[in-house]
Structures are given as structure tokens and as C-alpha cells.
Amino acid sequence: MAAACTPAAGAMVEIGSFKGKSTVVLATVARHYGLGHVVAIDPHTFDNPELAAHRAEPGASSFETFLRNLEAAGVADNVEVHRALSTNIAPHWTRPIRFLWIDGNHTLAGAKADFDGFMPHLVPGGIVAFHDALHLFSGPIRVFVDNVLCSGRFGAAGFVGSIAWAQFRPEDGMLFRSQRAALERRARRLLPYVEGDRKLRRVENLRYKLVRSRIPHAAVTPQFWAAQLQGPPQS
After folding, report:
1. To pair with 103 at 20 to 30 A between CA atoms, which of 40, 50, 58, 122?
2. Cβ neighbours of residue 6 closer than 8 Å, sequence gap 6 or more
3. Who contacts 127 (Cβ-Cβ below 8 Å, separation ≥6)?
4. How far apart are CA 56 and CA 6, in angstroms?
5. Would you call 169 helix, strand, or coil by DSSP?
6. Which of 106, 121, 131, 217 is catalytic?
7. How far is CA 219 from the centre of its chain?
8. Do 12 and 39 touch, CB atoms closer than 8 A?
9. In terms of pTM, does the model score above 0.70?
10. Tell me: the pLDDT tens digits for 155-176?
11. Phi and psi dihedrals of 19, rounded to 5?
12. Are 165 and 143 in contact (CB under 8 A)?
């Protein structure tokens, strides 16, 4: 919904593709609505500690599987592939962005680098979204809380499932201050649990889940989405 209905012009940029699940969804939306190509940025290596659970051999890659999945879904022609780190692409990026999907390295340094590298190109009205913001990773939730919810340059914001999203409104973002502040107070309570990307023990993990449950993150209807993006909440 965010990719299809964002009221702004520009590219859809995905940082972190892995085997292409989100890439296929975004490219299907782009093809259906005539929104151009999805820019998919990922080095497709298993060097990242987050992917250790896949137990890949050193030097293994997800790239061939990624390409096969794009072909199988019929969207290969709708994806502009960059097999590289986002930090290699960002210094040379010049195009406006309407939808920025951050799902790369989930450490604080990694998520912050993705955000800082491409955020200057997000156009007013565009959407930035972080995957896994309500999972046990330090990066997505911390960047969302500190650099989005606490910034007067953003308007409507929220969580859907594990995804955090916000609309870039540099001209009137302060009109949404109370909405963002209420969400920020709840989301900030998660930060001590994800600091250092450590594994939580049983009791601590239960406390984390309790805090997380108090953050609104249910699916939204198209009507709710449209109302959020049309303007500031009425007092």
C-alpha cells in the first residue's frame, strides 16, 4: 500500500533484497501502476552475521536465487539491480526517491548508514520504511525513534507488523508532533532491550514482548492510510 499510494514522484529504492521476496512485491506494484523500476541494492553475500542462521559456506551468495525468483515472478524487467553495498551506491546517487525501503544490515551502524545515505533524496510526501523494526535488532528501531519520530521533518508515522514507516513532510511535519511523540514514547521503551544486538534471556525476552505488544502495529485499511497522508490530524 505504501509503495502504490505514496503521493510523491520518484524511484522506489530497496536496500537489502536477499532472495527477492520484497523485491517481487514492490516490482509487481510498480509494473501494475506504471511506477517505473524498483532499484534493488544488495551485495548478496552471506558475510553479514545476521545471515549466520542460513549456515552458508564462506563466499556463498544469494544472487543467483534472487535472479531466478525475479524471473519466476515475471518482474525481472521491472527491477534495476545493483549488486553492491548501499554505502557504495549512495555517494553517487542523484535521483529523487518516493519510497525508501530499508532492510539491509540491521545493526545500528548499518541502518544509520542506509538512512543517512539515501534520506537526502527522499522527496516531500515520500515514505521511508524500515523492516524488522519490531524484532530484536538494534538498528531499525533506534534509527526510526531517534531520527524519524523525534524529527519535525516527518508527518504521519506508524508500525504495521514489524515494519516502521513515516511520511517525509519537511514543510509541515511539526503539525504531526503530538502523534509522533505518542508513538515515540512507546517505541523508545524497546531500545534498552535491543542495545548491542545481544540475545535476551527468557525473562528479559518476555518483558521485551510485553513492551512491544503495547505498540500499535496492526494492519491498516486503505481508508486509514489515505486519511493519514492527506494532512495533519484535526484538533
Report:
1. 58
2. 98, 99, 125, 126, 127, 167, 229
3. 2, 3, 6, 8, 98, 99, 100, 165, 166, 167, 168
4. 37
5. coil
6. 106
7. 16
8. yes
9. yes
10. 999 999 999 999 999 999 999 9
11. -95, 5
12. no
Cβ partners under 8 Å of residue 30, min gap 6: 3, 12, 36, 37, 38, 78
> Tens digit of pLDDT for each residue in 121-131?
999 999 999 99
Is 44 annotated in the active site?
no
Q: Which of 147, 142, 135 is nearest to 195 (CA)?
A: 142
Strands 38-41, 79-82: parallel, antiparallel or unpaired by DSSP?
Answer: parallel
DSSP structure string for 70-121: HHHHT-GGGEEEE-S-HHHHGGG--S-EEEEEE-S--SHHHHHHHHHHHGGG
pLDDT digits (tens, 9 = 90+) for 195-210: 999 999 999 999 999 9
- C-alpha–C-alpha distance, residues 9 and 63, integer Å: 29
Q: Burial of 206 by CB count in 10 Å (0-12 exposed, 13-18 middle, 19+ buried)? A: exposed
CB atoms within 10 A of CB 208: 18
